[in-house]
Amino acid sequence: MNSMTFHADPSRAEARQTLVAHRLAQAMRLGTLKVHYQPEIDLNTHQVLTLEALCRWHDDELNQVAPDEFIAVAESKGLIADLGREILRQVLNDLPQILLNWPQARVAINVSGIELSQAQFAAQWIQRVQNLNPDYLKHLELELTESIYVYDVPTVRLNLENLHQAGVHLAIDDFGTGQSSLSRLHTLPFDKIKMDRSFVQGLQNPMVQAIVQAMVKLTHDFHRSLVAEGLETQEQLSLLKSLGCHLGQGYLISPPKALTELPKQFSLL
Ligand code: G
Ligand code: MN
To answer: Which end of the chain is more exposed for a tag (fewer CB within 10 A), N or C?
Structure first.
């Protein structure tokens, strides 16, 4: 009984959210949230291109709390900006070690529409990174998961344009699901599309293959990169490569792991 969605009774769901929010705020103060990293690699050379920072939280009272749950609570209880700052803090702390292991890599951080709607978000974010090392900006990436409509908000646009100009890469997460739409894609600053794992799961279907090929062409023609999410099997790997998608992330390569547990090199066998 971990997720609030399992509570049929609304008052119990509310009580759970309040408890999770309280414990989460405490975990952020104590620094007990842990950022894990999951690699995205070149499927041919196995070079590590990006490490996605993914938050993991074990609470003494609540046990393991799924990120889907605590991120939803953080968003509804006004804690998402604090959570974002805590993740950036840990990533910046880990970056020297990461660049020793993978000098060309970027670290990708998931960012919420709520954060991007704050007028000073980009300026403050860039400032925090620059204070430490201006060179770090080109080793960071932001993953955008929001519904595409949020990008019509002028503040969100400005933030994204500022970040992009500062050299931060922008990736559209879970692309091709309800969260994204083609109609505004050409107006957005972005460097990368992360193809939602449902396409990888459906690769047996010739129509899904045709859709993947369309994404390959779209990203290729506009010099953006395309990464397949949720790569789990050898069969998916060879299908993806045959369709022209040469970057991937998923359990076949590695699950998210603590930095100290990550091998330097990844094989696909
Ligand atoms: O929305 P986003 O793509 O950022 O979600 C990342 C989540 O997906 C992480 O919690 C991670 O544990 C999970 N994940 C990573 N690789 C795989 C995979 O190969 N298969 C599945 N089903 N989930 C994955
Ligand atoms: Mn992501």
So the answer is: C
Cα of 108 to ligand 1 centre, how many Å? 14
Q: Under a CB-based contact definition with an 8 Å cutoff, are residues 189 and 164 in contact? A: yes
Mutate to test the pocket of ligand 1, among 3, 37, 38, 43 (most ligand atoms within 8 A of CB): 38
Identify the bridge partners of residue 247 per DSSP, sorted by sequence position. 42
pTM for the model: 0.94
115 vs 242: CA distance, rounded Å: 38
Low pLDDT (below 50) residues in the chain: 1-4
Task: Summarize pLDDT for 122-172 with one digit per residue, the tens.
Answer: 999 999 999 999 999 999 999 998 776 787 889 999 999 999 999 999 999
CA pair distance 261, 75, nearest whole angstrom: 30
Which of 82, 89, 109 has the alpha carbon at shortest distance from 28? 82
Nearest to 15 by CA among 79, 82, 73, 81: 73
To the nearest 10 degrees (0 to 180), the angle between helices 67-76 and 80-101 is 130
Expressed in angstroms and rounded, the spacing between residue 262 Cα and the centre of ligand 1 is: 16
